[in-house]
Amino acid sequence: xxxxxxxxxxxxxxxxxxxxxxxxxxxHALILRGPNGIGKTTLLRTLAGLQPAEAGQIDYPEDExxxxxxxDGIKAALTVTENLTFWAxxxxxxxxDDILQRFDLADLAGRMGxxxxxxxxxxxxxxxxxxIGRKVLFLDEPTVSLDGFSVKLFADWLQNTHLASGGVAxxxxxxxxxxDAPELDLTPFKVAAGQGGGTDEAFL
Amino acid sequence: xIALLLRDLRLAVRAGGGFGLGLAFFLIVVVLVPFGVxxxxxxxxxxxxxxxxxxxxxxxxxxxxxxxxxxxxDGALALIATSPLPLEGAALVKALAHWITTxxxxxxxxxxxxxxxxxxxxxxxxxxxxxxxxxxxxxxIGTFGAALTVGLRRGGxxxxxxVLPLYVPTLxxxxxxxxxxADGLDPTGALMLMGGITAGCFAVLPFATAAVLxxxxx
Lengths: 204, 218
What we know:
The complex is a heterodimer of chains A (about 200) and B (about 220). By secondary structure, chain A is an alpha/beta fold. Chain A has a single domain (about 1-190), classed as Rossmann fold (3-Layer(aba) Sandwich). Chain A is about 25% helix and about 25% strand. Chain A is built from five helices and eight strands, in the order βββαββαααβαββ. Chain A has a five-stranded parallel sheet with strand order 5-6-7-3-8, with helices on both faces. A three-stranded antiparallel sheet of chain A has the order 2-1-4, covered by helices on one side. Chain A starts with a strand and ends in a 19-residue tail after the last strand. Chain B has one domain (about 1-215). Chain B is built from ten helices and no strands. Chain B has helices spanning about 1-15, 20-35, 40-60, 65-75, 75-80, 85-115, 125-150, 155-165, 170-180, 190-215. In chain B, helix 6 (about 85-115) runs antiparallel to helix 7 (about 125-150). The interface between A and B is medium-sized, with 30 and 26 residues.
């Protein structure tokens, strides 16, 4: 469902990863590994279409990709339900009835986004993924600031709802999600410093 | 797109949204002018069109830097950019939301403030009409400026420097229409030119704004 061929990712005008190739079949996840700064976020942003790839091919069904970054995009002055409803409306999907339960947010439904704790915000940010109904998810450190129980909740949703319904996920994470998914170490694709030339755009 | 518009309007009227700040600023600037230039009604009514228009430019400027900055900081802008909503549409909606929360209220209170500045009675209709036609252009140009400076530290200051010169044509024709109305002349030409500027802004700038946002989101 997702196929990446010989991809070169650029950050700040310099290539950071090159020759990245992998394929993920429907119903499977891929976990990206690698030390800080290797380019996991850059790769995910390139896959999601936020920045152009310098070379290579990215293939997945059009209008099926969704990106979840470090920041959750939660509005402090909207309630939990309003935040979710907004994203559902943008994607033209109904809010699933059980989504608040799945992410342990039912008690917080009427709370303002600004009063949530970091972990609660993260759960709300992840619940957005359950609302928008996209098949190909690019998740950047989805478990940051989650406690063990919430990580299990999320892994359970990912495995039993998203992947089970034929979805795909590419996940950058440093922890063990407790999922049976292949891992891809990005270290071999690293572009050595000084290689690949500098940028020709002097003011960028 | 309607969802984004409703969300932005809701955010603007909730606590910390800044709705009314621009309006209050407009009121204060206009009320301060008679203290500065003295109470002679002849002088005041001569400068009233210009003062009202300059004050509405400055009031519209106040809330511009919030258009994209907040969504950029909390990550919502990247999520909107990867959503099915076209970024051009998002830019248009942002400008529209800005106009509904600043330009429209300014337009509606301006006649009351025209009274404070003893604006000529014939000019009220044209004041209302010129602001109604002109303020959407201010919001659209400002949205473009906000996209240019999104993600920059102290971007608000740079934004004012970028945007104010672009407001000049709207200001000239807006104030001119009111002045001609006050003098009993025909202001149609100025109003039509201003309408042309507004229409041109809305035709071109959503695309420019989206292009700039894509670059700034990289």
